[in-house]
Amino acid sequence: MVVASTRKLVTANFQEQVADGLRQMIISGELGPGDALSEVNLAETFGISRTPVREALKQLQIEGLVEIRSRVGTFVAAPSRREVNELFEMKQLLEGAAARLMAARGNIPELEAMKSNVADADAAVLAGDTVRYAELVREFHEILIIGADNGKLATHYRILMNQLAYGRLVKTSLAQPGRSLDSEREHHRVLDLIIAKDGTGAERLMRQHVQASHHAVMAGLDGAGPTN
Amino acid sequence: MVVASTRKLVTANFQEQVADGLRQMIISGELGPGDALSEVNLAETFGISRTPVREALKQLQIEGLVEIRSRVGTFVAAPSRREVNELFEMKQLLEGAAARLMAARGNIPELEAMKSNVADADAAVLAGDTVRYAELVREFHEILIIGADNGKLATHYRILMNQLAYGRLVKTSLAQPGRSLDSEREHHRVLDLIIAKDGTGAERLMRQHVQASHHAVMAGLDGAGPTN
DNA sequence: ATGGTCAAGCTGCCATGCAAGATGTCAGTA
DNA sequence: TACTGACATCTTGCATGGCAGCTTGACCAT
Known about the structure:
- 2 copies of one chain form a homodimer.
- Chain A is mostly helical.
- Helices cover 71% and strands 4% of the residues of chain A.
- Chain A has a two-stranded antiparallel sheet with strand order 1-2.
- In chain A, helix 5 runs antiparallel to helix 6.
């Protein structure tokens, strides 16, 4: 179980442990939007006092994952439709820039990783293994962000994507008929442009790719219940 | 006087008051990089207990303004040269996108505000009033961000700019000979493109503008002591 | 003079108790 | 029945005290 990789394997910090745990539960969907998070309940669950729980919740609030209503309670954030659109706009922006930056860096380990990822993804699509493909899509975007070699970009990107709970949305997106093939074809083209060191083209194409993904997700959401 | 506009004028929350106060002190330069922030000292200064101070410091840590070293102390963050470059890269990215988004919105109140701002700035440059011009530059960029009408973009933009302590840097930048005139000319051209609803052009030009500003700042920094 | 050891003092971390605001329930009244 | 008011019971916010880890500087041995 390779987890999100924050800093250290053993963090003597209770608050970080709680924050990491809750974050995973939220972005994985184990905790749904609107769910109440009581300090005392969480404290009992984790077997610690309210103080570190409280600090963890505060951190998650700043990250935009929960909403703390004073003297009322803490709830898992429920992004509005507008916010989801805003988040996709940011995703488009940041990933586009990441493609441009990565293309400018030339031969780096991440490039090989991306080639390998695309090859594996081809196989997964061919085999119709959507679960595996969804994981590879996640990895593709992660490689891209790391390959951009900009810590601030990576940090803010992760925060924004956590708000989207993107892990769930990817499945929604790929559930659209034919989306997997289109998506994989777009990954190919982005990779080609990065290899060709065409930063401008890579940025443009990456933006289109994210926008297509955005539309696929919204279409899938309309099929199911609305986000808010 | 369009101020930063957090939430409420009277917030019964001690932690927010402390966080806001410290944030202002840091971005204004009243607190310099590396300065130690002791929980007990701050608690005494503000006349409250350590708990809300602690929560405020935690918030500032997540915003990247302070660094909490466990069992050691809390210090005002000192961005490395690399981080400053990363921050400018993000600034370029976000403001470029803001220009594009604002251009796409057509006739909005922010457009009038920006016209008015540029006119005032012209006068300030002509009068050689660099203090007034610095303030108008800040306002120009703020109008741009608000005009983009994307809350997520605005939030993350402000966090990143706070890390830069941009208020101080603007003066450094404008101290470069001829920079004020160049800067103002660039603002003019961006505004023209926004009026013409040329989003792509506005984004490209805004990026160039930020990059020029970046160079001016770095040149000014080399003249003074290094950031780190 | 120099290198290593240790103890004191500082720091943030956590647990606990109390206070105050918000919410839902339920009795009382028109 | 519809509505208003008070109250019981949640919730978080703040204050305080004890604890564990890191840093630093003095002191001792070489």
